[in-house]
Write a structure and sequence with these properties.
heterodimer, A: about 475 residues, alpha/beta, Amidase signature (AS) enzymes, 2 domains, eleven-stranded mixed β-sheet, 11 strands, globular, B: about 500 residues, alpha+beta, Arc Repressor Mutant, subunit A, 3 domains, nine-stranded mixed β-sheet, 15 helices, about 35% helix, elongated
């Protein structure tokens, strides 16, 4: 019976009370991995031995009558851009070949301290740059719902690992939608917390002012517990908010009676009709639960994509400079240092990473800074201002997570702009530092999952989670 | 020989405001100072010079993927001290990333400050009284240190391989940017000496140019008086105050020769070569890096609390300029006096003030500190003992030579003895004039040749006579008194 356990909360409960052992739970997940991982390719590395060891340690604590932690025995997958001590951390890039971090990310420390079992490192678009996981140097991840389609990205491996039952929960990083969009395409819950709620220490940086770690899970409650465990102030991250993690599970059932749900009337068009249809049903479900739909405008929303594709590459061009072959990872030998640097980067980075480094370098260059990076920062401020105005009239905002359901491999790889448009609905809120959650809301075309996104202002996680819980319940009831 | 190959011989210093072939020298200094914190600017690794390479490191120092900087509060405090000691405004500020590839820079960007530095608009007053403007004093992290092995001259070009030590990477620096208010090499030297005195006084840095904890670059240009500034060259690799002065004078002459020949000065960075005494092109403006500065997203803006800044200001110790004024007043000397400056520079002004307050003779106190005590280390003698010693000298009870010997014994005995007792023990006492006159007359009688020369007006001949008196009195005689007696005898001889 214990081998059917899938949820974070239910596994932790069963292991803590002795109804199941962590070893049984981990073995069940490893069995599913053996069965389907060769099809899905969610992982860059499965940590079977380490996971069994960690599970045994949890079981020993339970047997000894000690508190095994709130995530006792919960198998968790980590996007392979979070540092794990002594364990390869690749960012799905050839340039980090052979590198084993000498330290753990804060998130990893907190998860293991809570009794979670790290079951593997998941695939991603190289350095988290992409929306389909097709930019991985180690081959794409496939969507467990349809192996001919992408899982979304960049945290496609983490989303697929949860959807395929390889892990009970997973963590990804979201810069412009990299948690929420794959969550939507794989039919799981995905959360991008308020910037600064989860420590970035040990998260390999893509765009530092936007990157944020967040959970994937089967249920809103599971995602609440995961965030409660990893969230809260970390002195190792100067941008960490000096507050404890938000209390979420205790308020999850509070409903949305009287809550004002904003519909952005000037949202950029482009969502497929099946997605639009589910959106309407989502508004209706919230109204049935006592919420009120209000129309708001966020005029700068549609500039989000452009601003993002200047700011994120600019920061990336600087963050990725350190991969120069001098200290770790790949080195292509050459006659002098500058040639070695260039040859290493030429061989080690994939096309999309190079494209963004070039974009970002250009945007910061003397003579272009004001016109590109400087202007993008102004747009960023405009977006924050527009959101602030919208949140005077609405408590949360509701949009599709992605314009389409999961698309076939290769559908957008020839056209970077088409790929970038996958993130049109998820990009603006990180520019304001706001939290957002994608919750599965039934299926669309080809019976593939559709995700609905709940946006909230900074530190608005509690109401955001409550709203998501109501949507989740509506689906369970047949919406 | 082309102008750029002009010989770089040492020449006499040009005083401030003096023209060189009708040109005025204009210098602005940029000084990098390593802060004496226990740990690095953004991590907990030790900030310590001279350790085994690559031992004071951690993920942040090495810029490992995923590592993040956390600002060292103590470093900010020391940087604010520097700002306040240089009369700057301390303001809310930002950190920026300065992007360029170099192997000794682990992240391939340096966290520095750009258009919103911590300290702005101050000044430093030279011992001569001239004020040199300070544009800014901002915080940044140091890079690692490369050693190029093989090839020639330790330069990267032509070397077989390079080694990098990251112990220095992330060490907190303050870069002090002086305004181009300096008008002579001597003023530049004064600026650096004065700045070092300030940094040491406020405990911000040990400020040793030779160890690299203070690094000075000089922006040098020349112009006809009254004309706008000329094109400047930045001179690097100045490892001592002496090099700084030599390099500025060489560079000024190089530029003047160019201009006099109708050529133009090219804006460039030049490398001072201590061995050939010249500056050489390092890079021109055209191949300067585009640093692509942008605000460091891993750090939050720094807004020092006003109360904290005032607390730091209130705790600042007296600065060298104030100490010179105080000592000069106590010693009835000019505050621009060189011995006053020297005593303050050596940190012995407290000793001097206390000795004078204890009744010591100001002039003799300064002389002893300047010439007869070691230049550094803790004060080797108590103010009371020093004061008592100068009292014996003043009363004519011991000669300056004897006083020096007594001081040596005092120091050897721990600094706190009774000079009069030592004098008595040694049998030192001023000679009674009858004894001295007898000794002088004996010397004249014993050395008739020397006496004849001296009498004929050859002052140098007195040396042999004084020497004979000293020998006869076992150096107990006061040289001045002997000379006076000899003069008296000469006068008596010529009038008789």
């Amino acid at each position: 019976m214990s081998t059917d356990l899938a949820g974070v909360v239910e596994i932790a409960e069963a292991v803590r009370t002795g109804a199941a052992t962590a070893a049984e739970v981990v073995d069940a997940h490893l069995a599913r991995i053996s069965e389907r991982e060769s099809d899905v390719h969610a992982f860059n590395l499965v940590l079977a031995d380490e996971a069994r060891e960690a599970a045994a340690a949890v079981d020993a604590r339970v047997a000894a009558g000690e508190d095994p932690g709130p995530l006792a025995g919960v198998p968790v997958a980590l996007k392979d851009n979070m540092c794990t001590r002594g364990i390869p951390t690749t960012c799905s890039s050839k340039i980090l070949e052979g590198w084993r971090p000498p330290y753990n990310a804060t998130v990893v420390e907190r998860l293991t301290a809570a009794g979670a079992v790290i079951i593997g490192k998941t695939n991603l678009d190289e350095f988290a740059m992409g929306s389909s996981t097709e930019n991985s140097a180690f081959g794409p991840t496939r969507n467990p719902h349809d192996l001919t389609r992408v899982p979304g990205g960049s945290s496609g491996g983490s989303a697929a690992a949860v959807a395929a039952g390889f892990a009970s929960g997973a963590f990804g990083s979201d810069t412009g939608g990299s948690i929420r969009q794959p969550a939507a395409l794989c039919g799981v819950v995905g959360v991008k917390p308020t910037y600064g709620v989860v420590s970035r220490y040990g998260l390999v940086a893509f765009a530092s002012s936007l990157d944020q770690i967040g959970p994937f899970a089967h249920t809103v409650e599971d995602a609440a517990l995961l965030l409660e465990v990893v969230g809260g102030h970390d002195p190792m991250d100067s941008t960490s908010i000096d507050q404890p993690a938000p209390a979420l599970r205790s308020i999850l059932g509070d409903g949305v009676e009287g809550v004002r749900v904003g519909r952005i009337t000037d949202l950029p068009p482009g969502a497929d009709p099946d997605v639009e249809e589910r959106m309407e049903l989502a508004f209706e479900a919230l109204e049935r639960a006592g919420a009120k739909t209000v129309d708001v405008t966020v005029p700068a929303f549609s500039y989000g994509l452009t601003a993002y594709y200047l700011i994120a590459p600019a920061e990336a061009s600087s963050n990725l400079a350190r991969y120069d072959g001098v200290r770790y990872g790949l080195r292509v030998e050459a006659a002098d240092t500058a040639t070695m640097n260039a040859a290493t980067r030429e061989a080690g980075f994939g096309a999309e990473v190079k494209r963004r480094i070039m974009l970002g370098t250009y945007a910061l260059s003397a003579g272009y800074y004001d016109a590109y990076y400087g202007k993008a920062l102004k747009v960023r401020r405009l977006i924050a201002d527009d959101f602030a105005r919208a949140y005077q009239d609405a408590d949360v905002l509701l949009t599709p997570t992605a314009p389409t359901v999961a698309f076939p491999f290769g559908a957008k790889t020839d056209n970077p702009l088409a790929m970038y448009l996958c993130d049109v609905y998820t990009i603006p809120s990180p520019l304001a530092g706001h939290p957002a959650i994608s919750v599965p809301f039934g299926t669309g075309q080809d019976a593939l999952p559709v995700g609905v996104q709940v946006l909230a202002p900074s530190l608005g996680e509690p109401l955001m989670y409550r709203t998501a819980a109501v949507l989740e319940a509506a689906v369970k009831e047949g919406t | 020989m082309t102008a750029t190959e002009q010989t770089g011989t040492d020449t006499a210093s040009v005083a401030a405001g003096e023209l060189i072939d009708g040109y005025e020298l204009v210098v602005g200094l940029e000084v990098h100072v390593e802060l004496s914190t226990a740990t690095k600017l953004f991590s907990a690794s030790p900030n310590h010079f001279g350790d085994e390479p690559n031992t004071n490191i951690d993920p942040v120092t090495l810029g490992l993927p995923g590592s993040l900087p956390v600002l060292n509060r103590r470093a900010v405090e020391l940087a604010i001290r520097i700002g306040l000691a240089l009369h700057c405004d301390v303001q809310p500020c930002l950190f920026h990333r300065k992007n360029y590839f170099y192997p000794d820079m682990p992240k391939d960007y340096q966290i520095s400050q750009y258009d919103q530095p911590l300290n702005v608009d101050g000044w430093l007053e030279l011992p001569s009284g001239t004020r040199i403007g300070i544009e800014r004093a901002h915080m940044e992290e140091d890079t690692g240190k490369s050693t190029h092995v093989g090839g020639s001259g330790g330069r990267i070009h032509g070397s077989d391989y390079s080694l990098v030590d990251y112990n220095r990477a992330g060490v907190p620096l303050v870069e002090i940017v002086g305004r181009p208010d300096i008008r002579s090499a001597d003023q530049a030297r004064q600026f650096v000496n004065e700045l070092r005195g300030i940094l040491v006084a406020i405990d911000a840095s040990d400020a040793k140019m030779e160890e690299g904890s203070m690094r000075v670059d000089a922006n040098v240009s020349v112009r006809r008086p009254g004309e706008p500034f000329g094109t400047r060259c930045e001179i690097k690799n100045l490892n001592s105050v002496r090099s700084l002065g030599r390099a500025i004078e060489y560079e000024a002459r190089r530029q003047i020769v160019l201009l006099a020949d109708g050529e133009t000065v090219r804006q460039e960075t030049r490398h001072w070569d201590e061995n050939d005494g010249r500056t050489h092109t390092l890079r021109t403006k055209e191949d300067a890096d585009d640093y692509r500065y942008f605000p460091e997203p891993d750090l939050v803006p720094l807004a020092p609390d006003a109360a904290w800044v005032e607390e730091i200001r209130a705790a600042l110790p007296p600065l060298p300029a104030d100490r010179r004024v105080a000592l000069a007043a106590a010693a009835a000397a000019e505050s621009t006096s060189e011995s006053v400056a020297l005593v303050v520079d050596r940190g012995r002004d407290r000793l001097a003030l206390d000795a004078i307050a204890a009744g010591g003779d100001p002039v003799r106190v300064l002389v002893h500190i300047e010439h007869n005590l070691p230049p550094d280390g803790p004060d080797p003698v108590t103010p009371a003992a020093l004061a008592a010693l100068t009292g014996l000298e003043k009363a004519g009870q011991v000669t300056p030579t004897q006083a020096k010997q007594i001081l040596g014994e005092l120091v050897d005995a721990g600094g706190d003895g009774d000079p009069a007792a030592i004098a008595a023990e040694r049998g030192f006492q001023a000679m009674e004039s009858g004894v001295l006159e007898a000794a002088v007359d004996a010397a004249i009688g014993a050395q008739p040749a020397a006496w004849e020369k001296y009498r004929a007006g050859e002052d140098k001949a007195a040396g042999a006579l004084v020497g004979a008196v000293m020998k006869a009195t076992r150096a107990q005689a006061d040289g001045k008194a002997v000379t006076a007696l000899l003069q008296r005898r000469r006068a008596e001889a010529s009038s008789s």
